[in-house]
């Protein structure tokens, strides 16, 4: 099983960016820990980050042809604005889980609306860097069946 992790704009600044909201961990640190979870689950994880909406649209659009089974995505600010990302998720029809470090529903009103979430299996938000781990486990559970999430590895 091969999962694509996409991180959107400004997430390369994690660690220095508003640590009171997003925590002190860097993106490479988060991805490194997620790789351990991927190894535990017996899946392949490919991670990409861009500040450019078009890059993210391209990655989503080619995900099926690249052999990905699902997508974990933090669209960051584009969550709230991007019809293009929403359409890309709808077009590719791969299961996706939207993730946010912060609880966007508890923040400014403009963050309450997600254009991308309706195209996803579900959303995990508010658990800091832990949101990524839950999102990955949730997606793998969705693809394999929930019993697999608790730890038992299954050959693909
Ligand atoms: C974010 C929440 C977004 O509203 C914000 O624009 C981000 C990060 C999060 O992970 O909490 O850049 O996606």
Give an overview of the whole structure.
By secondary structure, the protein is an alpha/beta fold. The protein has a single domain (2-150), classed as 3-Layer(aba) Sandwich (Rossmann fold), CATH 3.40.50.9100. It is 35% helix and 17% strand. The chain has a five-stranded parallel β-sheet with strand order 2-1-3-4-5, sandwiched between helices. Strand 3, helix 4 (83-92) and strand 4 form a beta-alpha-beta unit. Helix 2 packs parallel to helix 5. 1,3,4-trihydroxy-5-OXO-cyclohexanecarboxylic acid is lined by residues 10, 74, 76-77, 79, 100-102, 104, 111.
Number of helices: 5
Q: How widely separated are the two ends?
A: 6 Å
Helices and strands, in order, run as EHHEHEHEEH
Using only CA atoms, what is the Rg?
A: 15 Å
What CATH calls the topology is Rossmann fold
Sketch the major β-sheet.
Answer: 5 strands, parallel
Tell me the strand percentage band: 15-25%
Specify the CATH class.
Alpha Beta
């Amino acid at each position: 099983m091969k999962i694509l992790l996409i991180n959107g704009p400004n997430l390369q600044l994690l660690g220095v960016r508003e640590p009171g909201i997003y925590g002190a961990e860097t993106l490479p640190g988060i991805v490194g820990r997620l790789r351990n979870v991927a190894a535990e689950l017996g899946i392949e994880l490919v991670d990409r980050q861009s500040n450019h909406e078009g890059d993210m649209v391209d990655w989503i659009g080619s995900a099926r042809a690249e052999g990905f089974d699902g997508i974990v995505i933090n669209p960051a600010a584009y969550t709230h604005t991007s019809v293009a990302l929403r359409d890309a998720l709808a077009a590719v029809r791969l299961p996706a889980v939207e993730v946010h470090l912060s609880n966007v529903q508890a923040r400014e009103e403009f963050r309450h609306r997600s254009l991308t979430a309706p195209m996803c299996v579900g959303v995990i938000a508010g658990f800091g860097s832990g949101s990524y781990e839950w999102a990955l486990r949730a997606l793998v559970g969705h693809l394999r069946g929930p019993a697999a999430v608790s730890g038992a590895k299954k050959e693909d």
